[in-house]
Design goal:
By secondary structure, the chain is an alpha/beta fold. It has three domains: about 1-230, 4-Layer Sandwich (Glutamine Phosphoribosylpyrophosphate, subunit 1, domain 1); about 240-425, Rossmann fold; about 435-580, Glucose-6-phosphate isomerase like protein, domain 1 (Rossmann fold). The strands form four sheets. The chain has an eight-stranded antiparallel sheet, with helices on one face. The structure holds 6-O-phosphono-alpha-D-glucopyranose. 6-O-phosphono-alpha-D-glucopyranose binds next to helix 9.
Length: about 600
């Protein structure tokens, strides 16, 4: 997803902007560029990585500037479509993240008024609108231009020799970071962590005027006040820390993430009142929502909630809910999102609030849009997740879900105590999985030659099969699909055979026998078979080509150890296939467009 940065201060802007951009690479991009001003605007951009741009670009003098990493939506990745974009006279320069829905109409109008466009992007209408409205005051011109725009945006504008940056947001994240006689603007906090940890999050509709000495805000034509936050992520937390890839580092951080996330509640956690009331009177319904990996956490949450609260629970994709979903006002919605900025999730929350539902958010980013929109927010303690493929944020979400549901559970005290004990031991169980990485990497070597891989699971491990497949396809470009094992015979059987390995997640719960049946069925159809089985369970050994042993835990908690195993498997397959693990093609970390 596009990333934007801005700098204004006393130092040379160019190296700072390039450094900030390199820390936004994780969001996914295909081209990049920067503009620097010393009174006159100079722009350099191309369809290359930031490191390449740095090597080839000339030195630009100037202590204010803007930068952009582009994730193509309108027009192919190319130099001309890359940002920053300018007006006809090259007096104003703009970087934009988001989508302008009415850009065609605006472009036609502006063209008829004599403006010349050079790119295929929707974003280019912004500098032309500013040019149209500029009458000596850049902030006013931006405000007027934005009034014409329908869609979502986070923008930074500079130009006309003014010693200010103008930043604005609507439905796309933007943060201002405060330094000493210098200020920064960025899509995301990791971009600026080298320089400062003091940040102000823009609200929807905000227009900020940023100078080296200060920031002022306007919203809806009036002056607005915004408060400063301190980011508690260290630079080290946001960097690779000696691992070959962010993804591997993030997988290995999971024991710490579990401890930190649970540390907020165990042992004195208060139950979430809405959920407790609901489990007591049974009158409400629970709806879990998310996208991508967070949706898989929602699906696991559904199984946890059904078992612990004894309530029917729905889990839905936010993107589907937004058009066809229905919720009654008495629904309690639990929305999951690592970034807190996923456009589909934001839309879903707005839709839920419109019908009067209470909305709870589980997110990794304090101060994110979702956290500001929800009635109640729980922050996961995963720390910054840089790799596009979500790993530690998923586990942190699961921990929150376990604790939430347990704190309101309608189960015997003995069972409750057992579950608390399981949670307490979860970090060391994950460490056990990490300790078996060499064995998992060896299995990955065997699987790396296949181009189609199927994952099967049942019950609470059905979402784990989906997540295992998602991880693999995201980072290794292998076609991978997850199935509920019981569904194999309703279609996927037709695909099985020597070239189509199947990875089966076997758990010692009520699904064990029927999973074994599915495993036999797979074997009978000739597919290479790998089984994830709990320590001491040798029931599939004679059928499987390979078994991977996972630590024995209560079946309710088995998604934790199984997922970490599949994360490592996907990582090592992608590595063996020589894929760019952290930044897969066409994918973005934070999807801020619908
Ligand atoms: C993108 C990421 C996925 C992530 C999904 C939802 O597609 O590449 O890894 O699961 O967005 O993101 P969220 O921030 O809402 O959890």
């Amino acid at each position: 997803m596009c990333g934007i940065v801005g700098y204004i201060g006393e130092r040379q802007a160019q190296p700072i902007l390039l450094n900030c951009l390199s820390h936004l690479e994780y969001r996914g991009y295909d081209s990049c560029g920067i503009a620097v001003s010393d009174g006159a605007v100079k722009v350099y951009k191309d369809a290359v990585r930031v490191a390449e741009l740095k090597k080839t670009m000339p030195d630009f003098d100037g202590s204010l500037g803007i930068g952009h990493t582009r994730w193509a939506t309108h027009g192919e990745p190319s130099r001309v479509n890359a940002h920053p974009h300018g007006d006809c006279q090259n007096e104003v320069s703009v970087v934009h993240n988001g989508i302008i829905n009415n850009f065609l109409k605006l472009k036609q109008q502006l063209t008829s008024e004599g403006h010349t466009f050079v790119s295929e992007t929707d974003s280019e209408v912004i500098p032309h609108l500013i040019e149209k409205y500029y009458a000596g005051d850049l902030e006013k011109a931006v405000e007027r231009a934005l009034a014409d725009i329908e869609g979502s945006y986070a923008i930074i504008v500079m130009g006309y020799g003014e010693n200010t940056l103008i930043a604005a947001r609507k439905d796309s994240p933007l943060v201002i970071a405060l330094g000493d006689r210098e200020n920064y603007i960025a899509s995301d906090v990791p971009a600026v962590l080298d320089y400062t940890s003091r940040v102000i999050y823009l609200e929807d509709g905000d227009i900020a005027t940023v100078t080296a000495g200060g920031v002022s805000f306007r919203n809806g034509g009036k002056t607005a006040k915004r408060s400063e936050h301190k980011v508690d992520w260290s630079v080290e937390e946001a960097r690779k820390g000696g691992y070959e890839h962010y993804m591997l580092k993030e997988i290995h951080e999971q024991p710490r993430v579990i401890r930190d996330t649970l540390g907020d509640w165990l042992p004195n956690g208060e139950p979430f009142e809405d959920l407790k009331k609901m489990s007591e009177d049974g009158t409400r319904t629970l709806l879990m929502l998310g996208c991508g990996t967070s949706y898989h956490a929602a699906l696991v949450g559904k199984y946890i909630a059904q078992e612990m609260l004894g309530l029917p629970v729905r889990a839905e994709l936010a993107s589907e809910f937004n058009y066809h979903g229905r919720a009654l006002p008495e629904t309690l919605a639990v929305t999951l999102t690592q970034s807190g900025e996923t456009a589909d999730v934001l839309m879903a929350i707005k839709r839920l609030k419109d019908v009067g539902c209470r909305v709870m958010a589980i997110t990794n980013v304090n101060g994110s849009s979702v956290s500001r929109l929800a009635d109640h927010t729980i922050i996961t303690r995963a720390g910054p997740e840089i790799s596009v493929a979500a790993t530690k944020s998923f586990l942190a979400q699961l921990m929150v879900l376990y604790w939430l549901m347990m704190s309101c559970a309608r189960v015997e005290p003995k069972r409750q105590a057992e579950m608390v004990l399981q949670l307490r031991h979860m970090a060391s169980r994950v460490t056990q999985v990490l300790d078996s990485e060499a064995e998992i990497a060896e299995r990955a070597g065997y699987l790396a030659k296949y181009n189609d891989v199927f994952f099967i699971g049942r019950g609470i491990n059905y979402p784990v099969a989906l997540e295992g497949a998602l991880k693999l396809k995201e980072i290794s470009y292998v076609h991978a699909e997850g199935f509920a094992a019981g569904e194999l015979k309703h279609g996927p059987f037709a695909l099985l055979g020597r070239e189509k390995p199947v990875i089966a997640v076997l758990t010692q719960d009520a699904t064990h026998q029927t999973m074994l049946t599915s495993i036999r069925e797979v074997k009978a159809r000739g597919s290479p078979l790998m089984v994830l089985a709990s320590e001491g369970d040798d029931s599939a050994d004679s059928l499987a080509d390979f078994t991977i042993t996972v630590p024995r835990v209560d079946p309710l908690f088995s998604p934790v150890v199984n997922t970490v195993t599949l994360q490592l498997l996907a990582y090592h397959i992608a590595r063996k296939r020589g894929c760019p693990v952290d930044f897969p093609k066409n994918l973005a970390k934070s999807v801020t467009v619908e």
